[in-house]
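Researcher: Structure prediction, please.
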Amino acid sequence: MNQYINLSMENIDEAHICCAIGDPKHQAGVDRKKEWIKNKLKDGHVFRRLDARGKIFIEYEPLETAWVPIGGENYEYIYCLWVAGSFKEKGIGKELLEYAINDSKEKGKSGICTLVAKKKKPFLGEKKFFEHFGFKVVDSIGDFELLALQFKDSETPKFNENARSMKIETKNFTIYYSNECPYVEYEVKELSDYAKEKGIKLNFIKIDSLEKAKNAPCIFNNWANFYKGEFISNTILNANALEKLLK
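Model: Predicted structure follows.
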């Protein structure tokens, strides 16, 4: 029987948080992520992982306090569901999602929702997996879709109007990011150093509050790239990837 751990103020300092496990260069990002989780626990944030050394977890919280430009009442929002490597195809993803669904029902929620894409994109769940559990598309912006599983009659969540333009005024390469993901801290520094070396104008906008997250000008789930005023991807970039994009 699989054993799981829910992070809490009592165990988070000693526990690993899966994503950047075993990679020293991301330790600063892991520390920032843990601080982010600590600040979110009071909102009902849940980070549940397999009691094993691997990238196997689900992370969710009430939509009202979730750092995404999505509006709605009495829903939970799933940030991430990740089962990697040798742990795949063992029913663990099913167990994690069923836990989140049952937990949401016990809390009296009207449903649970998550962000996916019509075609698979980095750091987003598999649409077909969620559809298997009854999730349905309730809103969309371009290739991105909001899936929701309703438990009772209620108004479904939807993307905030500010997120629908997927455009910004500045033409310089601009990256929106937050410490929701432990990978971003290292890449922000790498990209900053690269831009300085090459004389490239690169803007970073840190999402560090609920207000900023709800008012993001695009689909946002911890990293968003804009170039010439247009949203181009949610891929977390390193220096090589940025160089290729600019070329």
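Model: The mean pLDDT is 94.
Researcher: Thanks, that helps.
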